[in-house]
Amino acid sequence: MSTNIVMGETTNSRNKTIVMYLLTGSLIILLMMVFGVLMLMAQGKMIEVDPGFFYEIMTVHGTGMIGAAALAAAAVMWYFLSKYVQLSKAILITNFICFIIGVVMVLIGIFVFDFAGAWTFLYPLPAISAGGWATTGATLYLGGMLILGVGFLLLYLDVARAIIKQYGSLGGGLGWRVVIGKEKGFGPPATVVASTMVAIVNITALTAGATVLTMSLINIYIPTITIDPLLAKNLTYAFGHIFANSIIYMGVIAVYEILSAYANRPWKANRPFLIAWNCSTLFTIIIYPHHLLMDFALPKWMIILGQVLSYANGLPVLVITAYGALMIVYRSGIKWDIASSFMFISMFGWVIGVVPAIIDATIVVNHVMHNTKWVPGHFHMYMGLGATTMLFGFMYYLAKVNKKGKETTRDTISFWMYAMFFIGLCGTFLFSGKVGAPRRWAEHFPEWIPYDRMGAIFGIFIVLAVLIFVIRFWNFSRSIDYKYQEKIGPNNHVA
Questions:
Q1: Contact 132/116 with Cβ under 8 angstroms?
Q2: 117 with 138: CB under 8 angstroms?
Q3: CATH number for the domain that contains residue 108
Q4: Residue 80 placed within a domain
Q5: 88 in a structural domain
Q6: Which domain does 278 fall in, by range?
Q7: Are 242 and 152 a contacting pair, CB within 8 Å?
Q8: Count of CB atoms within 10 A of residue 332's CB?
Q9: What is the pLDDT of residues 256-273, one digit of tens each?
Q10: With contact defined as beta carbons under 8 Å apart, do 122 and 236 qualify?
C-alpha cells in the first residue's frame, strides 16, 4: 500500500513551528557542545573547574544534547510524515511548550540547586546525594524530565494515531502484508515505515522513563516507598537507550526524502527494507541490557540477549539504508550541495559509529571498556557524524527549498571543518578509552591529559562550524514568510 499526497503549491515548509523546533534544537546543541569543550579543557588542565560544577556541566551536557537532538529530529519526522498522514499541529505545539517548561526546570535544578546526578539519575541517587544537592534540585530535574517526556509521548501517540487511521494499524505502517507475502509490490513510503517504528519504540521508552521518574519523585518525599534498584536501572536504561537511538531513526527520514528528491529516484519500501525495519523495531526495544553487562544480579538470559541482539541491531536498517543511499545516488547525476552532502556523510557516521558500539557490546570487552571514554567515542561518532548531520542537512534543505538559502564558500569550509574535526574528536575519545581513561571523571591522570587537550582543540573548531550553521539558519528563519499555505495530509489540510 502506498500513499502519495501532494503538498499544495510547493514542497517548501513554511511552518513556523517546524522552524522553531529546529532553531531551538540547534541552539541548545551548540550550547551543549560548548559545555563539552569546557569539560575536555578541565580534564586537560587547560582551565580550572570545580569538580562539583564539572559534574553539573556533565549532567546538562548529556541530558541537553539528547533532548535537543530529539526535538529537532521530531521536526524532521513531522515535516515529512505530514505528507502522508494527518497530524495534529496542536500536539506539535504542545510538545514544544512541554519541552521549554521541562528545560527551564532542568536548568534551574542543575545550576541553581546543584543537581549533578548525570542523565542516568540512577535510583536512589536523587534522594541520597550525600550532601551534593538538596531535594529541590532533584525534584526540579526529575520533574522537568517527566514533563519533557510527557510532551514527547503525546507527540508519538499522535503519530501512531495518524498512521493507524491512514493504514489501518501499526502493522500496516510497517508493511506487514508485504512482509508475509499477502500483498505484492511495495509497502508504505519509507517515511511512514520509519515513523511507525519510532512511534512504537518511543512510546515504550517514554512509558518506562515516566515510571521510574515518578517512582523516584515519590521516593524523595516518602522514603518508605521504594523500588527495586535493579528494576529502576533497567527502566532508566530502557528509556535512555531507546530514546537516544530513535533520534537517528527519525533523522534518517530526511535521508530517504532528500536524497530521493535530489537524485529524482524514489526510495521504494521493498520487502527486504520492510523486514529490516521490523527487525529493528523489535531489537531496539530489547538490546539496552548491553549497558548492564557488569550488573552481576541481572538474569543471565538478559545479558546474553543484550549481547546477541546488539550485534544484530547494528545491521538490518543500517545496511539497507547505507546500500540504498549508494544506489540512489549511483549514476544519478545528482548535483551535490551542503544539504545532500550532509545526508550522504551521515551514512558514513552511522556505519563507523556502530562498529565500536558492537565491539563494546561483547561481554569480555565490555567488562574492561564500558566505563572508559571508549563509550563516548562511539556515541559521539554515532550522534555527531550520524544523527546531527542529518539535522543540519535538513536545515540547509529547508533554506534551499524556500529559495532563501544561497550557499557560499564559508558553508563548504564549515561543512568539511565539522566533518574532519569531529572524526578527530571521536578518535581522541576512542584512544583515551584504549589506554583506560575513565568517563565521568572530573580529574585525569597525566598520561590521559594529551588526549583531552587534543579533543578540546578539535571541539573548538566543531563549535565554530556549528555556529555558522546556526547563524545561517537563523538568518533564513528571519527572512521567510510564515504564512502557512501548504496543503498537507490525507484531506489536504493540517489538523
A1: yes
A2: yes
A3: 1.20.210.10
A4: yes
A5: yes
A6: 50-250+269-299
A7: no
A8: 14
A9: 999 888 888 888 888 988
A10: yes
